[in-house]
Amino acid sequence: MASTDWFRDAIIYHLLIDRFAGLSSPEGLRPEFLGGNLPAITQQLPYLEELGVTALWLSPFCKTSAYHGYHVTDYFRVEPRFGTPDDLQRLIDRAHAAGIRVIADFVPNHCSRSHPFFQEAQQNRHSRYFSWFFFTGWPDRYLCFLDVAELPKLNLDFPEARDHIVSAAKQWLSLGLDGFRLDHVIGPTHAFWKHFRAEITRDYPAAVLIGEAWLEGINRRHFRTLRINNRYIRWLLGVSQDAVQKEYCGELDGVLDFGFRNLVCGRIARRGESAAALEKILSRRRARYPAGYHLPTFLDNHDTNRFLYECRNDRGRLKAAARLQFALDQPPIIYYGTEAGMTHASPVDVGKPHSDLQARQPMPGKRQDAELFAFYRRLIRERKERAASAASVRKAG
Q: How many domains does the chain have?
C-alpha cells in the first residue's frame, strides 16, 4: 500500500487563514488583512470535528505582502499577522489529536517583488540572486506569474533557488504537515517537479503532493511563463484542461480536478441537468486517468465563483452537485462557508483585479444555514461508512 493512500479517503476542508476565524473586521470586499489567524482556527477545530472532515487545507502561511498569502516574502517564516511557528505547530498537533490531517498551500513558482532576494537582484545584476529570476531587460523587465508584475517568477532549475524552495518545504513538513497543495504547477519545469518529489518523498514518504494545474484566464501571451509540455504547439492548436491535468502523472500524487468543476458548473449549476447523466460522463473520463492518481473534486474555491452563485442560490442544485461529488471515488473538498450557504453579489472575473474578493468574504457565524450544515454532515458520515466498508473488503481480500 502506498504511504499516501490515506489521501484517497480524505474529506478536505479548504479555508483562507485571513478570512475564516479571528477577524478584526467584518468587511470582506477589501484586499487587506482582516485579522484571521492560526490560533483562531485552532479554536474552531471542534466545529470541523462536528462537521466530520478528516483533512484541513490551509492557505499559504509564509511571510507575505498580501492577505491571501500568495505573495511570499520569506519562505522560512510564518506571517506574523497569522501567528507564530508555535501557533502553527499547535494547530497541527491539535488537529492530529482530533483525527484531522493538515495540508498547506505552497507557492514555489513565484514570490513577491517585495522579497529581499528579488529586490537585491534588481539593484545589483552581479548579486548571487540575479540568476534566481528571469530578467528579460534588467532591472524592470522579467518573467512573472502570468503577467502579474508583483510576482516575479523564480528560476527553479537554478540549483540554489531550487534548493531554497525544497528546504523550505521540508522545514514545514518537519512540523508535521501531511502534504501540500502546490500552487500553479504549470509554471515550473517538469524537471523541477521530479526533483521536488524525489526530495520530499525520500524524507516524508506519507506527504501528499497535489498540484493546481489550471488554465483559466491563460492566453498566448502567458505561454512563455509556462513549462507545460509542447507549449508552443499548444499555443497554436489549443490545450485541454484534462490534458494538462494528466501531465503530472508520475511527478505528483495528483491534481485538483478543475475538469470536474467545469462539468458540474456547466451542467448542474447553470443548466439544471441531472447528476445521474453526468456521473456516467465522469466515470468514462476517470477511466482515462491512471489508477492511484488522485483527482480531488471541488465545487468552488478562492479563485472561482461560489457554487451557489453559479446556480443562482438554488440549493437543490448545490445538493445534487455535492451528492455527486461525494459519490465519486476521489477526495471531496469543501470550500469554507459552502456548508453555511455562502454566496456573493457579483461574479469573479480572473481578468478583473480584486473581483476574487467576492469568493473570499469572511466566514459567517456558526450555523448560518443549519439545514445545509446538517446535509453536509450526512454526506460526510455516509461517505465514511462506505469507505470503512470498502476498507474491510480490501482487508478481507
A: 1
Contact 358, 307 (CB under 8 A): no
| Catalytic position from the list 183, 310, 356, 369 | 183
Pick the catalytic residue from 178, 212, 257, 310: 212
Residue 173 is assigned to a structural domain of this protein = no
The DSSP letter of residue 303 is T
Give DSSP secondary structure letters for 7-27: GGG--EEEE-HHHHSS-S---
User: What DSSP line would sit under 179-192, residue for residue?
Assistant: EEEETTTTSS-HHH
Return mean pLDDT, the chain: 95
Strands (E) across the chain are located at: 12-15, 55-58, 62-64, 72-78, 101-106, 135-137, 141-142, 144-145, 148-152, 179-182, 208-211, 254-255, 297-298, 332-335
Helix axes 315-327, 370-396, angle to 10 degrees: 10
pLDDT in tens, 125-151: 999 999 999 999 999 999 999 999 999
Q: Is 349 a catalytic residue?
A: no
Question: Does the predicted model carry a pTM greater than 0.90?
Answer: yes
Residues of the domain holding 267? 3-108+179-198+208-396
Copy the grid coordinates of residue 300.
468552488
Is 140 part of the annotated catalytic residue set? no
324, 379 contact by CB (below 8 A): no
Numbers of helices and strands, H then E, in the chain: 14, 14
